[in-house]
Each structure stands twice: as C-alpha cells, then as structure tokens.
Amino acid sequence: MPLAQGELCSALGEEINMDFREIKCKACMAKSKLTDYVINPYTGCTHGCKYCYAVFIKRFQDIKAEWGNFVYAKINCPELLKTELEKSKPGHIWMSSVTDCYQLIEGKLFLTRKVLEIMANSPCKNKFTMEILTKSALVKRDFGLIKESNAELGMSVNTLNDKTARIIEPMASPPSERIKTLKEAKEEGIHVYGFISPVLPGITNLEEIFGALQFCEYVWVELLNMRKACLERLMPVIRKEFPDAVKSFDFAINHPEEYYNNVKKEVEMLSRKYNLRVQDIVRHDRK
Ligand code: SF4
Q1: For ligand 1, atom 3, which residue shows the shortest CA distance?
Q2: For ligand 1, what atom is nearest to the CA of residue 48?
Q3: 0.70 exceeded by the pTM?
Q4: What is the residue range of 166's domain?
Q5: CATH code where residue 77 lies
Q6: Residue 287 located in a structural domain
Q7: CA 49 – ligand 1 centroid, Å
Q8: pLDDT tens-place string over residues 99-150
C-alpha cells in the first residue's frame, strides 16, 4: 500500500538517518528585506553547504539537529499561496532564500512543484515576477511550470571543480550538472542567471566562472558571510581540505574591505571582458 504523505516523509528520514518531518506553516509567502517576498517550502536543507548562513534558523526555532540533517516540509504552502496571491500587493517573489527548494526530498514530495502549479494557474500571476534559485539539477523536472509561471531560473556556483564542490556542498548537484541544467533551461526559453556565491578566498576562480556563465543574462556575486556561526562551520573544513587557501581566508576575514575591493575590481574587469552584466555584489555584515 502506498504511504500517506506524512508517513513518506518520516520513512525517508529513517532510511537515510535524517530528521524529516511535515509541518504546517502560517504563511507561504513572507515579506523580506532581500526582495518583496520569499517562499521557502522547507525549513532546513540537506545540501549541507559548509558556508551556509541559513544555520541561524536552528537558533530561532530551537532545532538541535546538525544543519544538513533535518528538513521540515511545510506541506500547506501550496494551499496558502492561492489566497495570498490574491490578497498580496504586486511584487517580486524569490524562491528560495534559506533552503533549496529542489533539495533531495523534493524529488519525493513534489512540494515546490505544487507551489509552482498554484502560481502557474493563478489568475493573479501577472501581478508578480518570480525567480527560483537552486543548486540542483532536479529543477529540470519543472521547466514547463517555471515557464508558465514566467519565472527566471538561477544556479548558484562558487567553483567549477566537482570534487571541491562535493566537499563544500556535499549533497548539491555537481557544478558541471548545474551549468548544463541552466543551459538546457535557456534552450527551453527560460530566462537564466548565475549566482556566484560565495566568493571563497583562494578557491573561487572568478574568471573561470564568468567564462562558464557567459550564456546567462546576468550574474549576481555574493561575498562570504563571515558571521561567527558560519566561520565556525566552514574554517575546520578549509583547514583540513584546502590548506593552501587558509592564508587567503585569513586575509579576507581580517581585511573585509580589501576582500570586497579586490573582488569588485576583478568582477568589473570580467564583466567587461565577458560582456556579462553584474546585477550587484552582495555583502554581509557580521552582526
Ligand atoms: S543550498 Fe543554500 S540553503 Fe541549502 S545548505 Fe546550501 S547555502 Fe544553505
């Protein structure tokens, strides 16, 4: 007998020894300082990126599990979105800001897909512009709905080296697959952009990435978030796996203004060289 959805979620979690649950949320669309609205159909993210700054969620929601080892699926998101689209003021929607809406579990739950179905079929969809940002080739499954929702698709990359990415972003699709997926999306007529994030000192090769993303309409560049909680997770991995990059990290951590200025200078040069528009360079404060 097929499992009910709640059972499927916990059965999956047991299978791979992770804390997977279904929860109900109060709202699907949330107002955001980053853009008008964000949609995060999941809390937590099994991609487990070592530099992830969404770890703050653990503190806010008093979650004890390690970042990367839990996912709470907000199963009522699609149902709530229907009326939210009617009631909300026009604006831009970003999916997703503190999770990856195409992480592992989405392959079984289809939650992001259901959100897109609501969006694509809503009489209010023209009130909104939308973008989807991911590191997963699973997004291919929903190209049709992404087009119907008039959404843009972005892929996040900080290295083209699949082995490096496996260490830093253990469960995300390899960068080679991400870029291939983005090219396929473009061929399907979807507007695509690159999200170069974060710029990892001594590891990220900006020139190589600009070259690979030349087919995109534009790119964002995001600097490393140097909050204590982020560095505490990231630096042991850098010291162990990338000892040659430690000096560059130390420089960036101790001289954030120079780190920014160096990246800015290089990005401006590469933008001209590759004729690729840079939307912005995103910086983070350390509070
Ligand atoms: S994909 Fe994004 S939200 Fe998920 S772990 Fe990586 S940085 Fe964090």
Answers
A1: 99
A2: 5
A3: yes
A4: 5-282
A5: 3.80.30.30
A6: no
A7: 5
A8: 999 999 999 999 999 999 999 999 999 999 999 999 999 999 999 999 999 9
Ligand 1 nearest-atom number relative to CA 53: 8
Q: Ligand 1 pocket, 178 CB below 6 A?
A: no
Tell me, using a 6 A CB cutoff, whether residue 100 lines ligand 1. yes
pLDDT in tens, 234-286: 999 999 999 999 999 999 999 999 999 999 999 999 999 999 999 999 999 77
Give domain status of residue 51, yes or no. yes
Q: Is residue 93 part of a domain?
A: yes
**Residue-wise pLDDT tens digits, 191-237:** 999 999 999 999 999 999 999 999 999 999 999 999 999 999 999 99
* Ligand 1 touching residue 119 (CB < 6 A): no
Q: Classify burial at 163, counting beta carbons within 10 Å of its beta carbon; exposed 0-12, middle 13-18, buried 19 or more.
A: exposed
Q: Is 123 inside a domain boundary?
A: yes
Q: In what order do the strands lie in the sheet with 42-43?
A: 19-23, 70-74, 42-43
Residue with CA nearest ligand 1 atom 1: 100
Residue ranges in 110-199 assigned as alpha helix (H): 111-121, 143-148, 162-168, 175-187
Rounded to the nearest 10 degrees, the angle between the axes of helix 228-241 and helix 246-254 is: 160
Q: How many domains does the chain have?
A: 1
